[in-house]
UniProtKB/TrEMBL annotation:
This is Phosphoglycerate mutase-like protein. GO terms for molecular function: phosphatase activity. It comes from the Eukaryota. Pfam families: His_Phos_1. It comes from Psilocybe cyanescens. InterPro entries: His_Pase_superF_clade-1, His_PPase_superfam, PGM_Phosphatase. GO terms for cellular component: cytoplasm.
């Protein structure tokens, strides 16, 4: 399966995670905490180890210093990754198990992924209108609360000097769109740029019908205050009912997003991406970092170093 090739991957570039700033960087400690149900989806200070009042100014200054002291072919950026809150598809999988969940796609209580047809009869020029709907599962009430938990911590940290992200990107799925919207609602008076909806930030693609996106027109009407990338088509032309993306393909797609950010957002130091577990796992694989057990409504801050060979 091949997704959008709008952003070409450059094989001569090296990406790596720069640990040490956040509690999430301690993979072994996190694994123990997860097993004991002690790990928070949204840690205090979003995980930043520095507890001082001016912690964010100092942290961003450190990342900027890394850029200033590095050769021209090396640069650093801070990414705040967020997984969408619990969606109805997550509830369905927990309720039925993955195999049955993927077959039935819904029950008498909820629909989480089935593509279905409705016929509406209107007296409009004597035509019968056929409307094709895709479930594109929404957040559950718990999922909305999880997004509000991110928002609450963002408000606290904004008061401690965390600026608005210099760029915000989001998956085109409703569960991610709502999580992103709630997470930043009322946190800042102004944002430098609206959220940009990007196809390549979507979940691992194919087979699961909950991972088929809605139309571009729907996204534009559902989140009119968000921007949508030019290449996002009206219909989902990438989802395949018979073929699931491999982990390597998802990582390659995440790599395209990273390359796009470093090449297009040269003046942006702090980037937020609201997405899904599969995409975030691919992102981590692309930067050479171990898989992170990010729950629904969880956040993962990472500093990424990108290096290209010096020009001869």
């Amino acid at each position: 399966m091949s997704l959008s090739t709008t952003y070409e991957v450059r094989d001569n570039l090296a990406l790596k995670s720069v640990p040490g700033f956040f509690v999430q960087d301690d993979i072994e400690a996190i694994a123990v905490a997860v097993r004991k149900w002690l790990w928070a989806r949204v840690p205090p200070r979003l995980g930043l180890k520095d507890t001082s009042d001016d912690r964010w100014a100092k942290f961003l200054a450190l990342v900027e210093k890394l850029n200033e002291e590095s050769p021209p072919e090396t640069s650093f950026k801070f990414f705040l990754l967020a997984r969408h809150g619990q969606g109805y598809h997550n509830v369905g999988e927990s309720k039925y198990g993955t195999v049955d969940w993927d077959i039935i796609n819904g029950d008498e209580e909820m629909i989480w992924g089935r593509q279905y047809l409705h016929f509406y009869h209107f007296k409009v020029s004597s035509y019968r209108l056929l409307i094709r709907l895709t479930a594109d599962p929404l957040l559950t009430p718990l999922g909305r609360q999880q997004a509000a938990d991110i928002q609450r911590e963002m408000i606290i940290e904004a008061a401690s000097g965390l600026p608005p992200p210099h760029k915000r990107y989001c998956s085109p799925f409703s569960r991610a769109l709502d999580t992103c919207d709630i997470s930043f609602a009322g946190v800042y008076k102004d944002h430098p740029h609206p959220v940009l909806v990007v196809e390549n930030c979507r979940e691992e693609n194919g087979v699961h019908t909950c991972d088929k996106r809605n139309t571009r027109s729907y996204i534009a009407s559902y989140k009119p205050h968000f921007s949508i990338e030019e290449g996002l088509t009206e219909l989902d032309e990438l989802w395949d009912p018979n073929l699931r993306e491999t982990k390597e393909e998802v990582s390659l797609r995440a790599r395209k997003i990273i390359d796009m950010v470093f090449e297009n957002d040269t003046d942006s130091l702090y980037i937020s991406i609201t997405s899904h577990s599969g995409f975030i796992t691919g992102f981590l694989q692309a930067i050479g970092r171990e898989r992170y057990p990010l729950p629904t409504g969880g956040v993962l801050p990472v500093v990424v170093k990108r290096t290209q060979p010096p020009s001869s």
